[in-house]
Fold each of these.
Amino acid sequence: MKKHCLTFSKNIFIPVTNVCRNACGYCVFRARSVEEAYLTSKKAFLSVVKAKGAVTEALFTAGEKPEDSNLSRWFKKKIESVGQSSLVGYTKELCKLAIKQGLLPHCNLGVLGREELEELREVNASMGLMLETTAPPAGTAETETEVGLEAHRNSPGKDPALRLKTIEEAGRLKIPFTTGLLVGIGETPEDRVRSLEAIKSLHQKYGHIQEVIIQPFVPKPGTQMWENKNKKRKRPPSFEELKEVVRAASEVLPGEVAIQVPPNLTSPRELLELVKLGASDLGGISERTLDYINPESPWPGEEELRRVVAPFELRERLPLHPRFVKQRWFSEEVRPLVEKYADEEGFRLRTP
């Protein structure tokens, strides 16, 4: 990909459920009670789809393994009421509906096993899972030199070994895959480099990593990481830290792996500087739906982004990156839409 070319996709953001087995110290997405919990209905999904406009991607996210959460009884009853027995089974149904509505699904449901990935592969153009960090949760460090993260103390799914295993299984199944780092949750600069090296190692083995997100932690009211014991507000990582991580990613990752920076979590001036340091992708943007993980941070519109990144060229892509389109890393289920939307280079076909 040319250095002056920046990519992005247009999506709608569908949170399937906010019930999650993890209790991360920075998260406002997870339901803490039955009153807060939800399972998005097919009717609600279709109502969002009707207003999708020129969007090509349906981004499905969910809490991880809600069947094993503290709200498992509520979730099991709810999922059975829609004729399914698991989050994966129900999300697969929603993916099929998305395809019928002209949308290419991209799922991020947390840690998944090989059989679950295989089941979802046929109805997804690409999939993802944030590695976040290779630093272990607090209480699980195996050596004296390891520092466990307090933010992940009550999050069994944030064990780096489990997340790396999911990413590796996706490689074995030839799933175009998105992963990334969450910067500023207590990890060290050395942890960040180790995380990038771990991603690089898996990509060298399977060739399936399409992008690595460098996502800054954003403190949110009501979370463990909003205030520390001294009642001082936890601050997000400095811009200098973000620059260092993007520099490191540029040095560590193979050139074919895109470095993504979320445009709704970075100021226009900072965004342009990160692009100059090697960032080449802006991820999915939605002018129709919230970023349910960071609801306080709306996405910029396409035209605004074009002004911000000028003179760099901004090109729209599909949820699977151009090289995977050309290599035909997609299932028969999504093939008609990929062929309909992609141009000969694998980018989104320009419309008049």
Amino acid sequence: MKILWGLVGILLSYFIVRYRKNIVEWTGKFAWAERYLGMGGTYTVLIFLSIGVFMFSILYMTGNMDFVFGGLGNFFSSGS
């Protein structure tokens, strides 16, 4: 099941990059991104988001999420 969710995340990151123009047309430009990252900042944020989704998907799929984020303690767990 982890492999399936990992592949879904990888596909999602591909589609974010592939259709970023359509995403920006749908959501509009992010004012904070344009202000702090300059012209095209919204597209840059979408690329960074895509890279993050890709990396989390690979980590989850390979079972290395705990290895990378183990120092955060119970941040990703629920309950006591």
Amino acid sequence: MPFPRPKKTDSEEQLYAYAVGALGRRMRSVAELKRLLRPRVEADTEYGQTLVELVIRKLKDQGYLNDSRYASAYSSFRRDNEKFGRRRVITDLKIKGVHSEVIEKAVAFVYEEVSDAKQARDYMRRKRLKKPENQKHAARIFRQLTRAGFASKTIFKILKKWDVDDETLTALESEIGE
């Protein structure tokens, strides 16, 4: 059974109440909240667009909606709980619609005193990654660490400490270039 379509409204109070409820469930970026509100109004009309912008402005003025606070909290959470690297956090924030300047400031502040190598080791411990036994397993670890947002330089340092043979490392370097 498909989900029912959201009820359309032309009331600012109802849209505002819905937006506050959505923000009460979890923090959201401005772009995410706009995506959530558009189906609830006639988005193709000027009135609907104005209504969404009005609600967003009201939430910003009241301090409920702030992309820089959102980016900082999101970055801290991903760093501390998920153990992700900078690149992964930056990519995720871009997907959520946060502006590049806000992302750069937040991620730089959050990852300021974090060692990329230590963060990668913490991630591997969290995911229970072991020393690779063969070339295929080393490639799998390399790709997993790349997806987690770590720089290739950091990943190669870790693999070298694990005595992965030079042939495998050369193959992985050529994979990056593609």
